[in-house]
Amino acid sequence: MPAIKQKFFLSLHDFGFLLNGLDDIIRLKKIYKDFKITCFLIPMSKLFYIPENIKHFKVKKYKEWAKIINSYEWMEIGLHGFAHTYNEMDCSYPKATETIKATENFLNEIGLHYKKLFVAPYWQYSWDSLLVLKEKGYTVGIDRNHQRPIPEGLKTYIYNWSYEEELPKNKNIIKGHGHLGKGQFKNGLEQCYYNIINQISVNAKFGFVSELAQE
């Protein structure tokens, strides 16, 4: 039986200004000619308020960083909440509306381009927040391991490969999922780097999560 031709739609959570991980993403880019990746951004991470980070947080520097990210044609940005706190999107309809509006306004202010893709911090949604995301035209990431009822008509995205796992051999569309950061997750890019490059051919084809959302 001939091998299945696979296309890879890779995503990473916890991407952002002053956060770890961009260097590891660029390492992957150097290996794969067709490389593309979708990064879910934390616009105002709670880590910004750690004393050693506060002195580096300047809107001017954030805007300069945004210009660099916008120049990466191989990267697209989705939203990962606003501050990435527990229950941030497990909330009322007005609160969800306020959070999404604040996120969009902030990214527009700093000039960072983004797609209408959304993953709630810790995968925590209320029914009302899902309704708001649907009404605003977002495609929503749902945890593979904790699937849930969703409003009719809401577009969703569910990964089928976590980066610490063996690559699925029987799927032609691979929806990869992992995290950035230092050793916090079993599917962290830093610790799974070699598991990824040892399983994905250098000639592999890649796409963006937003392309799946359009299907």
UniProtKB/TrEMBL annotation:
- Biological processes per GO annotation: carbohydrate metabolic process
Provide the organism lineage as a comma list: unclassified sequences, metagenomes, organismal metagenomes
Q: Which Pfam families match?
A: DUF2334
Q: What is this protein called?
A: NodB homology domain-containing protein
TM segments? none
Per its UniProt record, what InterPro entries does this chain match?
A: DUF2334 (IPR018763), Glyco_hydro/deAcase_b/a-brl (IPR011330)
Q: Species name for this entry?
A: viral metagenome
